Structure formats: C-alpha cells, structure tokens
Amino acid sequence: MKYQVAPYVHPDTGFRALPPVYEIDGVESAYMLYELNLAPATGGSTHRYQIIIVWREGQGKCQYIEDMGLSALWVAGLKSVRSAAFAEDEPTDWCHSVEEVRCLAHQLREVDMERILGLEHEDLVAGFHDRVDQYAKARRHQSVSGPLVRVERN
User: Fold this and answer.
1) Whole-angstrom Cα distance, residue 78 to residue 35?
2) What are the pLDDT digits (tens) for 42-93?
3) How far apart (Å, rounded) are the C-alpha atoms in residues 34 and 80?
4) What is the H or E stretch that residue 100 is in?
5) Can you list the positions of beta strands (E) in the chain?
6) CA torsion, points 92, 93, 97, 103, in degrees to nearest 10?
7) Cβ(26)–Cβ(103) below 8 Å
8) Where would a tag sit more exposed on the chain, N or C end, judged by fewer CB atoms within 10 A?
C-alpha cells in the first residue's frame, strides 16, 4: 500500500536536515516513526504530525510527514518507534517496514488509551442498547425492581 501527501511547506519540525519525500510504500524499510504535536510558525492551532524516516537512493535518509489533524483530538501521548538499533545501521539492518511501524504506533496508542480510561471503559454498543431499553421502559411507564417483578408507575 502506498501512502501519499500533497507537497507542502511543513512548519518547523526540527528535522530540516532531512530532505522531504511525499510518497512512501508500506513495504519499504523505515528507520523511525515519530508522532509530535507542533504549532505552525505562522500561528494557529497545534496539529499532530506523523513523521516517518525512510531511505532513498542518492538522498539517504528522508522524512515523510503526514498531518494527523488537531492535537486536541489525540489524547494519547507522543510516540517514537525505532526500527534500527543504532543510528549508523545500514538500511538493510532496519527490521520494520513502514506498515509495521504504523501498526506499532497504533498499538501504543491503544495501550495509552487503556491507561487513561482504565481497563473497564464504557462499551459503546452495550451503552447504546441500555439507553434504548431505558427509553422503552420510560415509555411504558414501568420499572423493574427484580426478576419477574413488574411495578407500574403513574
């Protein structure tokens, strides 16, 4: 699977030493994935960016930057997934593909959300059905106080 973004001038990421690429393939090797909250230099709201470092012949390490939207929508912490043990490792030694580092970042987000919400967070489907049942009982003016017990309300 190929990922692509339109060429644009990115706000200050701190990775200016690396040349930008605007298209990456999911199966190519990735050096590292970062997810950072950055504010544009021109002002405005803070956005979350996913930065993936890949290897390109003739250029070396390059950065692919994808805007993930407003940072307020991402309550999980910042992410960093490394694919190489050392900075000097050759691209053949990088052990994860672009697809794998994205999957690892997603799994880390889920772990963070369980830590924030707790292991027993609200089940949205069950919550919806509970609300439907409450609405139906309120329409019939009945409440249940136990099994096989029906109490009529005025």
Assistant:
1) 6
2) 777 888 888 998 988 888 888 898 888 888 888 777 888 888 767 777 877 8
3) 5
4) helix 98-117
5) 2-4, 20-21, 23-25, 30-38, 47-56, 60-70, 79-82, 142-146, 149-152
6) 180
7) no
8) C
d(CA 139, CA 57): 69
Q: Name the token pair of 101.
A: 């580092």
pLDDT digits (tens, 9 = 90+) for 119-129: 665 667 777 88
Burial of residue 74 (number of CB atoms within 10 Å: 0-12, 13-18, 19+): middle
Q: Do residues 62 and 19 make contact, with C-beta atoms less than 8 angstroms apart?
A: yes
DSSP-derived pairing of the beta strands 149-152 and 142-146: antiparallel
Q: What is the pTM of this model?
A: 0.65
Chain centroid to Cα 23, Å, comes to: 19
